[in-house]
Structure formats: C-alpha cells, structure tokens
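Protein: Phosphonate ABC transporter ATP-binding protein
Species: Paracraurococcus lichenis
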Amino acid sequence: MPMLELQGLTRRFGAVTAVDAVTLSVPAGQMVGVIGRSGAGKSTMLRMINRLTDPSAGRILFHGRDVGALQGAALRRWRTDCAMIFQQFNLVPRLDVLTNVLVGRLNHVAPWRSLAGLWPEADRAIALSALEQFDIGRLAAQRADSLSGGQQQRVAIARALVQEPSIILADEPVASLDPRNARLVMDALADINRRYGITILVNIHSLDLARAYCERLVGLAQGRLVFDGPPEALTDEAARQLYGLEAAEAVGRDAPRVPVHA
Ligand SMILES: Nc1ncnc2c1ncn2[C@@H]1O[C@H](COP(=O)(O)OP(=O)(O)OP(=O)(O)O)[C@@H](O)[C@H]1O
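Structure follows.
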C-alpha cells in the first residue's frame, strides 16, 4: 500500500479550479518535486494534504486512512506526523533559535512545561543536535530575526525534523533565497530524506533545482496533473506544457530554448 494517496483531489475557489481531480500515489521515503508555474495549484495541493484547506472533492489517504475525516486529537497527531515548511519560514521572530526549534517538540512535551519555559533537557539536546546537523548550532541563542533567510529556513527545517514526522510538505521553501542559500536548504531536505527516510513533497518553481534534487517530478498545470515521472523523462515538450512562455525563466536560461537536458 502506498504511504500517501490522493484520489481525484479537487479544490475550487469560486469559478477557479485550483486543483483539478489530481490522483497520485507516493510510496514511503520518496523525495517528490511538485513543479509548475505560479498559480498551477501547487500550494493548494500541499495545504489540502496538511488540512489547512479542505478539498471540494476527492480524498487523501495516509496508510489507507482518510485524512479528511480526522478531527481533534487525531487531526493534531496528523499535523505532527506531516510537518509543513513555508516560503516565509514562519519562525517567531523575537524568540531565540533554539526555542523556535523546540516549538516542534510541543506535541511531545506537557504543555505546562513549555509554557513555563521548562523544556526537558532531552528535548533541548534533540533541538540542538538538529541545528548542528544543518551547521547552525552556533546560532542557537540568537534571536530568529537576526538570521539570514537561508539560516532561518534551516531553523524551520530543524523545527520540522524534531516533530519526528513521517512526511514533510515544503511549500516553495527556496523561493525567497539566493542560489547559494537555495542549495543549502535543498541539501538539508535531501539529507533528512536520505538519513531518516522521511518522505518529502516539495513545491519548487525552479526546474533546475527540482531536477537536481528530486527523484520524481509531479507537474501541475491549471490544477491538473500533466507530468509524473523521473527528471530524465521530462522532455522539452512536457516542460513547455508546464511552464509555457515562462519555460526559459524556470530553467534559468535564455528564451526560446527549453534546455531541460543538462
Ligand atoms: N484562498 C484562495 N482564494 C481564492 N483563490 C485562491 C485561493 N488560494 C489559491 N487560489 C487560486 O487558486 C489557484 C492556484 O493557486 P496556488 O497558490 O495553489 O498555486 P501555486 O502553484 O502554488 O502558485 P504560487 O507558487 O504562485 O503560490 C490560483 O488561481 C489562485 O489564485
């Protein structure tokens, strides 16, 4: 049985069908890049999986369980098991880095302890070791808003990791970063995918990065699934269908060539 199954997943906003009958199976441990131009429905698809947005039709199954039916404690457990990473990092700016990562432990710690700032030593060690894994342990005591964008996104990945999720949904995690930081953040995602077998779905506008880091690409255009395969299978024609006139920008080269073959 696949870990995650989307069956005819659809979301409408008024007259717009943001996600249109998407059917997809994802086995455990895969690193999947979701590609497509702005407005293709990538964010809406990820937000439905995490239950931040409700589907208009279709189902999401996780190990055969209907995610749409989860409520209360079961829904909170799902959101712990399915960590989300956002383009704008979503850290608490005035809190220090270590505390931001500890927020990811909230579902593992009695609420009164965290409110009182009494994080168990074991959790502090877990949080620090996650930061060290991404080479930012030395920043643990700094305020989150004193870090660069690339550092903040790695803190957000550390926070997601200490949730001990089985799947991570990353919604354009590198869209606000320069190329060097984008690579550091993609390296961090690839590292936890390989090291811990955490399944990753990452929305990514840059075709070059998607091809470099993901073993499988899923392409959306106007909410429809128009490509599903390994990066090598993405032909010029498929890239053109996905990106239209944006193709050259997405692959970072000059128009009108669509040099998807590296
Ligand atoms: N809350 C909303 N209300 C109305 N329309 C929405 C809402 N969220 C998304 N849409 C519309 O749904 C479509 C898909 O948007 P979505 O954000 O999922 O695309 P995307 O591929 O993630 O693009 P981007 O990278 O620009 O966010 C767009 O036409 C968008 O305008």
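Remarks: The CA atoms of residues 28 and 181 lie 27 Å apart.
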